[in-house]
Amino acid sequence: MFRSLKLYKGGYIDLENLLTTLINFSYKRQNAILEEGDFSRRGNLVDIYPFTFEFPIRIDLDPENRILSIKSFILSEGKALWEHQIVIILPMRKSHQPKHAVFSEDLPLANFVDLNTGDFVVHNQYGIGRFLGFQKVKISDRPEPHLVIEYDRQEKLFVPVDDMHLVQKYISFHARRPKLYRLGSKEWQRVKDNARKGIQKMAWELIALQAMRVSAEGFSYSPDSSWHREFAETFAYKETPDQAKTMQEVRRDMEDKRPMDRLICGDVGYGKTEVAMRAAFKAVMDGKQVAYLVPTTILAEQHYQNFSLRLKKFPMNCQLLCRFKTGLEQKEIVQALAQGRVDIVIGTHRLLSDDVVFKELGLVIIDEEQRFGVKAKEKLKKIRLTTDVLTLSATPIPRTLYMSLMGGRDLSIINTPPENRLPIKTIVVEYDDDLVMQAITRELERKGQVFFIHNRVEDIQKVRERISKRFNRQISLAVAHGQMHARELESVMISFLKGEIQILLCTMIVESGIDVPNANTIIINNAHMFGLSDLHQLRGRVGRFNRPAYAYFLIPRGIFLDGDAQKRLKAISEYAHLGAGFKIAMEDLELRGAGNLLGVQQHGFVEAIGFDLYCRLLRDAVGNLNKIGVSNAKIQP
Length: 637
Known about the structure:
- The chain has 637 residues and is α/β, with parallel strands linked by helices.
- β4 (45-48) and β5 (57-61) form a beta hairpin.
């Protein structure tokens, strides 16, 4: 049985025993916590930065040492983020994990068990039931707190607090009500065993792919030279600690003989692109070509502009291959790639066409791989075996899935916000013409630019007329959407990037990666029609400069919002602090399911046993396969 410290809201604790336990868990007592592994006490407040937590927690006690609240908070500001019902604190571990660590499915992935009365829950051993709250049960004439779970036919299971790690909130890819199981029946075990077999097959594929990469002979890049340092100095910002760590991991991967396959994940605007640019520069310095694959032409255009600017002092040829280019221009670029005259090519799925052949492809960078189709992913899977691959994701994957996949893929997480980055002021409000005009006017008066998102092409011109009529003075306002002619759309986007357009009225085509530091107000019309992750990505288009940024989420006046829409808007308002993307990812998973996280075949297993248990079983399978050695892993027919 693993050691852990379990605390829950409303429970009583022995304060001295709590502090002693933390010391025994190798935590350090400080006057104020600074890093993971620290704890401090100030009167009735106990601050702890537990191992593997995204944020530290603050425990508020009453005079009788009953827990009034457990809240995550921002270390730099001391500002409370969100409250938790139950928290599980594990001992500190050494910086390196055993190479072939194997886990039990009973070992928790998530450190928080945030349950409300009425929530559906999964008990690893008994299946899906409904949480009814806490109740004290006499054990040896002593009342002990228990979680109460109701199963089919109103059967009740009383779970001791010491076993709370076996219980997690039921989250699936669908919002429909799950089936409740009967206590004592064999059905739950049968369902779990069936899921385990399917998950093991996925784990085999993960490990087998890893084994093939390990056995493949890749290209070992040279150590960085003075040119690498000169290129790094053209970066306009100070590297964050997570950025520097990730760059070191990528550098180490590229200098190794094994083909790189690393996923870099972080919140919007946290600097993943800079890591990719450094990797691309390193590849070209050793005579290799780089393909930078992005999901939209708009993002391809911006990356191309940024690369061109950063590389102007270096003898490297960078080209753009997407629908912004004419057929003749595309043909010339494809020929140049085959002859090795192009060093870096940036483009959309056009890069995966059969006619695109590289003379010396060394690195493939994939931005938001989940947004590409099945055919594209199959081609990328083949590329991974012999070519270095770097994948970037701005859609934060829940930490539970990270931990379950740690044995099957190289992962880097960028959690540190850039220096001087400010939280975005988030306003959810009914549509009001005066409010919209005030928001736009305030931004224009400080010489900034505005995004206005209206995701309906059929009446976007009416919105343009409505905005234009309200301004007495001349303003530069342009429309952008995917149905425009490529040249016209390209011209509009370049003008906005250069600051020549004050207001960009557009659809969701700017959702991914567009970086305009001077644009610090975004207005999203009909916000109730967007998914939660989409709202978070759109909000991330602003706040990339050292001035306050504003995001307005507008809903039609007097409209009735369904339950999910209300939850999405509440979440986007509540999780407005820096680094909130991971919390939003879990909320989004709960509301509508993040179907791009896993293959379609795996969805049924998630629905049958819940997301948390799915991740535990996947982590266990990967760990067990690693234990026997990846070189022995083969996909079973």
